[in-house]
Amino acid sequence: MIRVNKLSKLYGYTTAVSDLSFNIEKGEILGFLGPNGAGKTTTMRMLTCYLPPTSGSAEIFGFDILRDSMEVRRLIGYLPEKAPSYHELNVRDYLEFSAAMKGIPKNKIKRAIDYAIEKCGLAKEFKRTIGNLSKGYQQRVGIAQAIINNPEFLILDEPTIGLDPKQVLDIRELIKSIGAERTVLLSSHILPEVSQVCDRIIIINNGKLIAVDSPENLRQKLKKSALIVIKIRKQAGSPDIVNLLSKIEGVSDIRETTSSDSTIKLTVKSKPELDLREKIASKIVGNGFGLLEIYNEELTLEEIFMQLVTMEN
Amino acid sequence: MRKIIAIYKREMKYYFQSIAAYVSISVFLAVSGYFFSSIFKYYNFLSLEVRRTASVTPQLNLIDGIMRPLLGNISILILFILPILTMRLFSEEKKQGTFELLMTYPVSESAIIAGKYLSALTIFTIMLAGTLLYPLLLMIYTEPELMPIASGYLGLFLMGSSFIAMGLFFSSLSENQLVAGVLTMGTALLFLLIGWLAPIIDPRLFNFISQFSILFHFESFAKGIIDSKDISYYILLTSFFLFMSKKSLDSTRYKT
Questions:
Q1: What are B206-240's pLDDT values in tens digits?
Q2: Of the candidates A85, A100, A145, which has its C-beta nearest B6's C-beta?
Q3: Chain A closest CA to B162's CA: distance in Å?
Q4: What is the nearest CA distance from A49 to chain B, expressed in angstroms?
Q5: CATH for A2-221, among 3.40.50.300, 1.10.3720.10, 1.10.8.60, 2.60.40.1220?
Q6: What are the φ and ψ backbone dihedral angles of B171, each rounded to 5 degrees?
């Protein structure tokens, strides 16, 4: 279990992290969410013993980050932001280097490298120079060095930043499969990513903790209203659709967002606890409209964030 | 120990997988070769002159006429080359972000410093070994005294070792390689030329200050004198900067 207790970090007079406390259960994937400059990286750097905290403490499986730095560093695997590595080395040499640095016994190095290579899908890139690999593969190399010592606690700082959509998906799958066996702290500023991969989310802003919860709970809590988006095909001589839908119980507002000659797009607002999709669908179809699309609009990070930040103030 | 070797190997791969090592070693050998041939030709000219005019010139022996000026020139050359060779040791890692990763590995600061120091020392040793060709040439055609040559090389090696330690320290201070290199060169030059103060300051004070001079301690090596005082000077200077490098790495972990 990881316990973070009132962790603070000041750079001169600037507070990067202030009084941050949270726990991570063993085996959990925890998402660390916040805008740029919120203090995510600083917190991770303190947990990895790279930066000392100004005050407060943290314990990683019973080891204190200041007192037992060496033990902590033995337990963790860390992927810093931008996945730095030695670009002039090839993948194998680099992994050999990190395995040796992490103190993996000589007779187990080969197995450790094979494990990391297999997990991260680097078999074909094994002998290529890291500097010549694409950004996505460099990221994989970074994750490979992080998991090479089979760490209890994996810390990944923005693992999908700067990747193309396909690579983002690949890395997410990779994290899920690695996270099945160990405790993971993952930072990101992309909400869908975090809500797909993580069991719980921590949101920080200006170095302060704003919320800790599961992605669903967080969404539910912050939802002030449910938004349903529908797209229908216009029928000649059909009744007024806005009028029809507003008669459904629970609908508080209907807005026509875009329409063309043949289609209309509407957003229907209702109380957050209601799911009116079925009722709306049957009403539309029952009145002879062609239903093209209907979906619940989820809150985006920006919205959750704006809400949380304004609540703070 | 394994971790020191791992860091050492990583550094050596950097030097030899890029063209860095090849270029610096070749340039070093080319310039020192030029030194040797020009000094040798001048010596040759001087010998013929002496024969023709039958005058007595006391400097006309292989050590004072060739080896001492040669090693003296090489000492200036390493003053320029070693800071360039060492300036990347930490600066580059800081710039690339690999320094952060390195510091989160379960490895001691001393092991990091040892691995990096030994790698630069190896390159320097290869450079020096290359110049052994010149005394070897002398030995084929003449019979120079071997002791002053050996002690001269020991002096150069010790001097280079201290420059490398300086370079390592300044590199640990900045992520800017240029800053690290210039600071190293400036400091090394200051240690080398502190003797220039001689005519301007009190002789008693100068006696004290000259003890800090790299050149002052090198002189006796070049003459063929191996004095424990001079050896300990270089070892102290080297250890001091290695210790400072360790403190510089430690300081990133200090609670502020």
A1: 778 778 888 888 888 888 888 888 999 999 999 99
A2: A100
A3: 27
A4: 6
A5: 3.40.50.300
A6: -70, -30
